[in-house]
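Structure in, sequence out. Go:
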């Protein structure tokens, strides 16, 4: 059984969805600092 075409199709969908998410991040000025956690201690 050759799964190469199936995995290639999945890769295409993943690439398309990644581009959509990254474009949304750019459009809304989301950066890496938005994903950095804070403890809340001393945070205003």
């Amino acid at each position: 059984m050759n799964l190469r075409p199936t995995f290639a199709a999945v890769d295409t969908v993943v690439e398309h969805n990644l581009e959509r998410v990254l474009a949304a991040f750019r459009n809304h000025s989301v950066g890496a600092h938005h994903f950095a956690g804070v403890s809340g201690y001393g945070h205003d």
